[in-house]
Fold:
Amino acid sequence: MNSAELQSVARIIGGGRHKLSGKQFVAAGYPAYGAGGLNGHLEYREFEQSAIVLSSIGARCGKCFFTETEWTSLANTQVIFPDLTKVDPKFLWYQLDNEARWPRSGAAQPFIRPSDVKTHLVTLPPLDEQRRIVAVLDKAFAGIATATANAQKNLTNARALFEGYLQSTFNKSGEGWIERRLGEICGLQNGFAFQSNTFQESGVPVLRISNIQNETIEARRLVYINPADYRENLDRFKVKKGALLIAMSGATTGKVGILDEDEIYYLNQRVGKFEPTAHLDTHYLFYYLITKAEENLSISAGSAQPNLSTAQIKEFLIPLPPIEQQAKVVEIFGEIREHCEQLKAIIGQKLAALTELKQSLLHEAFAGELT
Structure:
């Protein structure tokens, strides 16, 4: 296949020439494309032709967006208008929409130089072949999009199935069940306000709100402290394997997780550690709190920073069977959860395969191997 500089087959200009922004967005109007894609709508229409909007500054640097209708450009973009006598617009978009192919400059804030956009090399078969490739890719990608949507729906359904079973169990209760306030049968230890200026690259790890993810404690992006830097006795803030934690602030407020690591950690502020009495099984409480996650977030809303207080958590009403029955319920929940996790893993593999298929088709298309 022949190749050519982008500027020889397209007109390229900087986006956002009218200095419009989100302040001018309206509920219904013309699409406005910025570095993040379709950012909103404006009353003003800048262009009336197909183009490719290249995100040229920021985290999505190199991402391309295809426009077909009347629209407007925003800042931090380069707008590419294909010469219709030389290149099919969608063919060019399929080729350019690959963040890895674009040379980046800058460190903290990556960007693509306008000169690099103009001299960027593109593969250029004859127009008829470009249109044939576009037709093949359109059909294949439509099928992939449908399969992806179905897989994601199945993933959601698997989660809903598990949560629905939990909810129905706690709602129906049974003989010998009683309802208690959580504070009557469980303590809650708040974390310590470790000073960020004492954080270091090694030492004793500290668990923060951000470590509570996906109903577990993810020991990633940890910070560390040296206990000798503090005069306080930090023993009560130690967290060991099997501890049940809850996020009490931020976007993950109400989320819970059980620590499954052998290492000892310290508990940071706004992370709570449950301390059940002999009348409450930790895993039973864990499953119950999963069903309360959305409710907890709604309770904590109403301010700029969602926040759950110790008093609010202790007021949770929990349906409580005898401790022996709690263990049986936990065993059943664990089996169902394992089956759901296996299903999620299978679906995840399918989604990864679909993504790989899409990339493989694009590679074949621009290597002249697509039949």
About this structure: Residues 125-177+321-371 form a domain with the Helix Hairpins fold (CATH 1.10.287). The longest strand covers residues 37-42. The CA atoms of residues 166 and 330 lie 10 Å apart.
